[in-house]
Amino acid sequence: MDSKANQKRKHILNSATQFILENSFSDLTLEAVAKQAGISKGGLLYHFPNKDLLIKGIAEHIFEDVSMNFTELAESDPKVTGKWCRALIESSKLDLENMAEQNVGKLALSLLNLDAAKDISEMYQSILVKLDKDGIDPITATMIRLVIDGLYYSEMLNIAPLEKDKQEKIFQRLFQMTEKET
């Protein structure tokens, strides 16, 4: 069971993420997050003494949620072969349909130094290892990952993002790719 302090920390991180999704990253201030969370600035500073630590917390929080969702989806998949690829596809599809919180995490990472991004990179690497050992052709698994990365970067950078119907067809094709025998 989460402690009261941990619950408050999660509430702050969820509020900060929601603020960024509703506004912009450049508008993020400690005051704005405190207001969004319905707490005092002092209450926020207790958990996050400065903006850099808040940004790091946002990125880690998002990627922890993504990793947990990814694992839960894979473990609930009755088909063993390709389950990690399908979990990546499904979790990414859900995220992109719901304002792409991963984009917020990636943007937060881009504002941090390389040392702070190391843990997130290792988390993503652990996902990639699972994809490579998923029982489908590793090149197919890599292609699935790269297509998903491309969808995210297109959305994040607002470079010719795809219409939702075309994006849905791409996800359907990616799911099909996990079903083919190697």
TrEMBL record:
Thylakoid in keyword set: no
Keyword vocabulary terms for this entry: DNA-binding
Pfam families: TetR_C_28, TetR_N
Domain HTH tetR-type intervals: 6-66
Gene Ontology molecular function terms on file: DNA binding
InterPro entries: Homeodomain-like_sf, HTH_TetR, Tet_transcr_reg_TetR-rel_C_sf, TetR_CgmR_C
DNA-binding region: 29-48
The organism's place on the tree of life at top rank: Bacteria
Protein's recorded name: TetR/AcrR family transcriptional regulator
Native source organism of the sequence: Cytobacillus horneckiae
